[in-house]
Design a protein that fits this description.
85 residues, single chain, rod-shaped
Length: 85
């Protein structure tokens, strides 16, 4: 109702516009697959984070290697930068 009042159109006009926009977004998603791609990337990022955690834990419990520690930290930092994009 507020949008209709502000735009000088009916509530039905607002609803129709929203439904049309929703349809366009769904059509674009079907063609581009951006949301699905984002979910796959997010799952991959979480898997990499878990692997880094396990590697760091194994490194601490066994023959500690400063090189493994440093490289795991670099991987994690790079991953966090990618996750922000």
């Amino acid at each position: 109702a507020e949008i209709a009042e502000n735009e000088g159109i009916t509530r039905q006009g607002v609803r129709d516009s929203l439904k049309r926009a929703e349809g366009l977004l769904l059509e674009m998603e079907q063609k581009l697959g951006l949301a699905a791609r984002f979910r796959r990337m997010e799952a991959g990022i979480n898997e990499i984070r878990e692997c880094i955690r396990v590697i760091a834990d194994i490194n601490e419990r066994h023959s500690y290697s400063r090189e493994i520690f440093n490289r795991a930290g670099r991987i994690l930092a790079a991953l966090e930068q990618l996750a922000e994009i």
